[in-house]
Amino acid sequence: MESRNREKKRKRREILEKKKAIDESLKAASAHKDHLTAFPSFRQYERNGLSVHLESGCGDKLSSAEKQYILNLLKANMEGPYGSEWPAEEKVKRREMVASEARYIFARELDAPSASASEMSKTNFAESKGSIVGFVHFRFCLEEDVPVLYVYELQLESRVQGKGLGKFLMQLIELIARKNRMGAVVLTVQKANLLAMNFYLSKLRYVVSSISPSRVDPFTGVEKSYEILCKVFDNESKALLQE
After folding, report:
1. What b/e sequence results for 139-177 when a residue is b if at least 16 CB atoms lie within 10 Å of its CB, and e otherwise?
2. Closest Cα partner for 93 from 116, 54, 67, 119?
3. What's the Cα-to-Cα distance from 111 to each of 51, 75, 129, 130, 165, rounded to whole Å?
């Protein structure tokens, strides 16, 4: 009886220690404002006719121009896939965009004005450091007791798509996740966004997560307009998010 109690205490202690370690990892990752400092080679992307510089940002520190650019690009890229759901979804994204826990990586094109950005808004984004041509919005959070880097948005202007920049940004995201001891990268994709589904599933080898509606309940999940995808980094995360 005594040995059984000792075993229970030991297991309880292990659970608490694990929870504490996860909480500390999430807190440390979220406190870091510029995750690019750990990966200086990723600050520049020069391939396929693009010359892009990456920089970090925080949701509660966005300039008015950055906020307007994000909203314009979201509408340009996502109004179609969301369809009738877009007006409500746009309101949600407006709130998510400026949250203090929101972290950004902005891609700025060097030595070239952003024609499509200027078309989308009269706001002048052609700063001396370059015009924004896309961004990633991500956060560190808990999913099914797994610390994850959740990609809220990966958005690129149409004219810079298909040139490897999206893949480059996701490779960086995965490195940031691993460095900060996250168990996986998780993201949500609209089923109607066929190009994005193919990009993540085929090119980047993400999988439909076990927490995605279509896997939680195939009968009701088919009615949902989105899938939750993931890429896991260890067996424990795989058991909770993939299998």
Report:
1. bbbebeebbbbbbbbbbbbeebbebebbebbbebbbebb
2. 67
3. 8, 26, 9, 7, 17
Regions of the chain where pLDDT drops below 70 = 111-129
User: CA-CA distance, 136 to 138, in Å (whole number)?
Assistant: 6
| Domain residue ranges of the chain, discontinuous segments joined by + | 33-112+125-242
pLDDT in the model for residue 115: 42
pLDDT of residue 9: 78
Determine the pLDDT at residue 78. Answer: 96
d(CA 129, CA 132): 9
Alpha-carbon distance of 193 to 214, in angstroms, equals: 16
Bridge partners, residue 57, by sequence: 104
Q: Are 173 and 165 contacting, i.e. CB atoms less than 8 angstroms apart?
A: no
Q: Token digits for 71?
A: 């909203």
Alpha-carbon torsion (122, 125, 131, 136), positive or negative? negative
pTM: 0.88
φ, ψ for residue 13, nearest 5 deg: -65, -40
- The helix (H) or strand (E) run that includes residue 225 is none
So what's the pLDDT on residue 11?
77
Q: What are phi and psi of 53, to 5 degrees?
A: -110, 135
Domain 33-112+125-242, second-level architecture: 3-Layer(aba) Sandwich (3.40)
